[in-house]
Write a structure and sequence with these properties.
Layout lengths: L2 H13 L4 H9 L3 H19 L2 E4 L1 E6 L25 H14 L3 E6 L7 H14 L4 E5 L5 H9 L4 E3 L7 H7 L6 H13 L3 E8 L6 H14 L3 E6 L16 H14 L9 H6 L3 H7 L4 E2 L29 H10 L3 E3 L9
Parallel strand pairs: 1-8, 1-9, 2-3, 3-4, 4-5, 5-6, 6-7
The structure holds 5'-deoxyadenosine (5AD).
């Protein structure tokens, strides 16, 4: 490993910031030794802030109906082969009840941009969850909405919102999305969510089509400046029914290296080892945690719909990825020295 790389890692750990070229150098430095040093430092920082805790969130995929047509995504509207479903308020509430009994204290409602979930409907669901489980956090991940809509949902009790920025480079954004979607609106959403007092998560896919190291450096700089409370990054995985079917997937190694960098940049951030990471490697989740991630989001959707939320090919939804198998997840985390914790696990401001 070159000496400058060690110095960059020192600076990142001390100042929680680097110039964009510094991030670029860390992204481009392919060696295993660099990855190991980054992971070692990131793990130490995480242990200082969070101890050995790994937080779990119950993920409920409430709808596979989406009005958007993101070029990489398996549930894009133009994919005729995608089986569509939508959960009712009762379905969602009973998933939360089941999750509560299993120990979950955060529920993440994620779905396509489905017009059925108006502010009234979705706000009603949030209110009902909060009434039934006042000690739980509710996270929404329902895409781009108006500021008024985000405000109404916040008022209904939503605590957190996940909206990946996808890429911090406007030209790259345009290569991954249809013309009617805009980078500026994505950024508007993220800033509105922050201003409304949500704990906000941004994020991106690693190895997405046309992505270059410069894009990744820009993503890191954006995350440094935006200071999200959560950050979801996972490998791009091709979906057979998209134009990127034959593109290569992102790698575990690059995903882990980026997780470590983000942990050093924001010590208190909530950083999931994503389903996508678990889907491309049988030990992907463990590798993510060891690199500095501290959240896992097992699937709490009703079994009948689990396979239908197919964002990419071979997406995991059973084993330790399933909320019902939290025992297996506990054992797997314990085996690498971490403890699954079921409290709300809020962001630490440090
Ligand atoms: N591979 C990996 N992640 C994907 N997503 C969508 N399609 C894919 C894919 N093919 C991610 C996007 C989106 C989130 C819901 O899932 O980043 O924000």
């Amino acid at each position: 490993m070159r000496k400058e790389i060690g110095a960059l890692i020192d600076t990142l750990e001390r100042e929680h910031a680097l110039p964009e070229e510094g991030y670029l150098a860390l992204v481009k430095e392919g060696g295993e030794e660099t990855a190991r040093l980054l992971a070692e430092r990131a793990d130490a920082v995480r242990r200082r802030v969070f101890g050995s805790a790994v937080y779990v969130r119950g993920l409920i995929e409430i709808s596979s109906i989406c009005k958007n047509d993101c070029l990489y995504c398996g549930i894009r509207r133009s994919n005729r082969a995608c089986e569509r479903y939508r959960l009712s308020k009762e379905d969602i509430l009973s998933a939360c009840d089941e999750g509560y009994a299993l120990g979950f204290r955060t529920f993440v409602l994620q779905g396509g941009e489905d017009g059925y979930y108006t502010d009234e409907v979705l706000g009603g669901v949030v209110r009902a969850i909060k009434a039934a489980h006042p000690d739980c956090a509710v996270t929404l991940s329902m895409g781009e909405r108006s500021r008024e809509s985000y405000a109404a949902l916040r008022l209904a009790g939503a605590d957190r919102y996940l909206l990946r920025h996808e890429t911090a480079d406007a030209a790259h954004y345009a290569m991954l999305h249809p013309e009617e979607m805009s980078f500026d609106n994505r950024m508007r959403c993220l800033h509105d969510l922050k201003a409304l007092g949500y704990q906000v998560g941004c994020g991106f896919m690693v190895g997405s089509p046309y992505q270059t190291p410069v894009h990744l450096a820009r993503d890191l700089k954006f995350i440094e400046r935006f200071r999200p409370q959560m950050c979801g990054i996972g490998p791009f995985i091709p979906h057979a029914a998209t134009q990127f079917a034959d593109d290569p997937a992102g790698t575990v190694e690059m995903t882990c290296r980026l997780l470590s960098i983000i942990r050093l940049m924001h010590p208190g951030v909530l950083l999931p080892a994503t389903t996508a990471l678990g889907s491309i490697d049988p030990f992907g989740r463990e590798k993510g945690i060891l690199a500095g991630a501290n959240v896992v989001m097992p699937n709490l959707s009703p079994a009948s719909v689990r396979r239908k939320y197919a964002l990419y090919d071979n997406k995991l939804s059973d084993g330790a990825e399933s909320a019902q198998c939290i025992g297996e997840l506990r054992a797997r985390m314990a085996a690498i020295g971490y403890e699954v914790v079921t409290d709300r696990g809020d962001y630490r401001n440090c």
